[in-house]
Structure formats: C-alpha cells, structure tokens
Design goal:
Elements lengths: L7 H14 L7 H12 L1 H4 L16 H18 L3 E5 L3 E5 L1 H7 L5 H17 L4 H19 L1
C-alpha cells in the first residue's frame, strides 16, 4: 500500500506554493523543508497563528520523513516542468511559468490557509537563511522536549 500522508504527491502542491508565494527567487531542498514545516506548524513559530495539522507532540519527528518527501516532490516537479533547476552554489530551484499558473489555480480551503501561513512565516522570518531556520526549528524541538519532561 502506498503512503499518501506527507508523501511527495501530497507535498508537491505545498512546494509549488512556497516557490510561488515566499519572497525568494530560488530555494534549496533544505529551505523548502524548513519553510514547509514552519508553515504547516505555524502556531509553534508565530504567536496567534493556527497550525494546519494541529498541535501534536510528534511534529518534530516528521522532519526526517519530510526531507525525503520534499526530495521526491522536487524531482517530480522538475520532471513535470513546474520547477526549474539552477546550479549555483549547489542545486537551487525556482518556479516556472507553468508552475506559477498551476499554483495560482489552487483554491481549496487548505491551500488558502497554507498560503496565509506562508505569508506570516515570510513576514517574520524573511531575512533568515536555511541554517538560521533550521536552528530555530531545532531550538523549538528542544524546548518542546523539555516541556514534555
């Protein structure tokens, strides 16, 4: 049986929304991972925001699986022509014109809320690079773990 939850298939639209909405011209895989995680669990990172997947004690354990799912999603999106690969300082990805058109067609309640969460994350963390975002996620995970004790 194929896994749909947090699979590349489920994450592909979110990757496209990040590339279309977040105010950067290109993204690394790790940056997609950090931004996606923060947008899905925005309530953990921004006071007053509501997390799309609720608040659960195991959310930080999703990071490893999310990396693999986003890798798979990026590969598919490049092959389908929705993302373009740029090779400078490693691999970076930007949305294509086709990807922008497709991302703009997402009208579900989930897509609208995800996009709103992306805008909130970008407003607060716009000047942070992937290492700084990863550090924030790690610090929140450690603090969350301490609260569990």
């Amino acid at each position: 049986m194929q896994r749909i939850y947090n699979s590349g298939f489920e994450i592909e639209p979110r990757v496209m929304l990040i590339a279309d909405t977040y105010p950067l011209s290109s993204f690394t895989e790790d940056l997609f991972v950090a931004i996606d995680f923060m947008a899905v669990y925005s309530g953990t990172f921004i006071a007053g925001e509501q997390s799309l997947h609720g608040d659960n004690g195991f959310k930080f354990s999703e990071i490893t699986a999310r990396r693999q799912s986003i890798h798979e999603a990026i590969k598919n999106l490049v092959l389908e022509g929705f993302l373009v690969v740029e090779i400078r300082d490693g691999f970076k990805y930007r949305i294509s014109e086709l990807g922008t058109q497709y991302a703009n067609s997402f009208e579900s309640t989930y897509a609208i809320q995800y996009k709103n969460n992306l805008l909130s994350v970008s407003e607060k963390y716009r000047d942070y690079d992937e290492k700084a975002l990863s550090k924030i996620i790690t610090e929140k995970a450690l603090a969350d773990g301490r609260e569990e004790l």
